[in-house]
Amino acid sequence: MSFRFSRLFPLFCVIVLLLGGWVALHFQSAIEWRDQPILQLTKRQQQTLQAIKQDVVLDVYISGNPKLVRAVQNTVIPIKQWLPQLTLKIINPDTHPTLVQKYNITRNGQLYLHIGDTGQKIDTIAPETIVQTLLDLSTHTERQIIHLQGSGERAFLADSGGSWRPLYEQLRQPKVSLAVAELGKIINLPETADLVVVADPDTSKAEHLNAALKTYLAQGGNLLYTTDTQHPFLPKILQSISGLHLLNGTVVDMASQQLGFEDPRILPAAINEQTELTQSLQQLPILPGAVAITEERAPEKDWKRTVLLQSSPNSWNEQGEVSGHIALDAQETRGPLPVAWLLTREYHARQQSIVIMGDSDIFQQQAFGMAGNRAFAQALFTYLAQVEGGERLNRPNLKDQYIQLSTTQTYWWAGLQLLGLPLSIFLLGWYLRRRIEKRYQA
After folding, report:
1. How do residues 218-254 score in pLDDT, each as one tens digit?
2. Given pLDDT bands bounded at 50, 70 and 90, which one contains residue 348?
3. What's the predicted TM-score (pTM) here?
4. Which of 17, 36, 233, 334 is most buried (most C-beta within 10 Å)?
5. Within this chain, do residues 151 and 122 fall inside the same structural domain, yes or no?
6. Domain that holds residue 59
7. Which among 171, 160, 162, 284 has a CA at the least distance from the CA of 228?
8. Which residues pair with 271 in a beta bridge?
9. In sequence order, what are the residues at sequence separation of 6 or more whose Cβ sits closer than 8 angstroms to the Cβ of residue 216?
10. How far is residue 330 from each of residues 131, 246, 289, 290, 316, measured CA to CA in Å?
11. Of 79, 112, 138, at which residue does a domain stop?
């Protein structure tokens, strides 16, 4: 019996290996335990995906790589909760040269996404890239954003200091047109613009700017207006509509020192999470220097006014030079101080929106990547221009990516790693040797 078993044992091992390989290729399941989801989509993005009614097919061009096939299959799992009709189709590029040429497939592992009659090639296998392509292809309405220049405003796409180039480079996407309008060459702003941006103008053409904004806003246009501490200025038409005015001085906030900033003008702005614009934001924006915008009277009829961003209770509008020791003086106002406002009204069965901000440096190169500035910019422009699911997907910051240790804790941890663990090996060897000696002596 044992002889027969020994002869059949190699065959048994081969059968087990073959069955195991077949099961591994055709049956797979996994349990994933995560503190954060793989994809964190805004409400607007989720609604855009769920509104797709056409057939969605993802062609995957893979030849002889089962591991890569499984990776793609796992990649689309989190997407199907919003897009259950998503179908995965594995295509061997060696046997389908016509499709390879038609869709310009150049290497193994490339994807091609079909939504109805439209489609787009995808180079990277990741949930974020697939979802971003879905959002881009499903955007049906073209939007136009106009950046006004000619009155000392921040530059559009120039490399000069203070330029908003990083912002507009991120906003570039299909169905969104970005353009510049020169204030000195136009009388009225384009009626076709879905959003006009006026970034930190000076008072050199105040009357012309005021007249252009008055006509544009009367026609129901959306507006983003920002000013700054260098030459704070709020046009008369915006003062009239909003009932707001600018406080003298620069907002300083002692709460910034808790975040490691030495300059008190760097402002961690608290978010009003009750608005549609800000409810999806996870991080506070950081404003490099802001002027406070406070209420003077009620807004004009039909307009609703809401605070978007404000400073902490430890802030005030410093009217002197911000250097050395500074303190709240009698003529200054203690926080919280609003630094950004949202105004809305119903206009011909749709919503018209105006955002007024007291900082223009937030969207320049040095500050754009700080904290929640990038996400705030995406939410702001998507809301004002009404882009369908138009926010770029941002990877969420992991909660456990850094270990925060005090100096004492760091010394203890280093001592454990450098001394404790090596010594424990010698102590264990000494202990085992003692036990063996006692056993033989007994």
Report:
1. 988 999 999 988 888 899 999 999 999 998 888 888 8
2. confident
3. 0.70
4. 233
5. no
6. 43-138
7. 162
8. 309
9. 188, 189, 191, 193, 196, 223
10. 54, 18, 22, 20, 11
11. 138
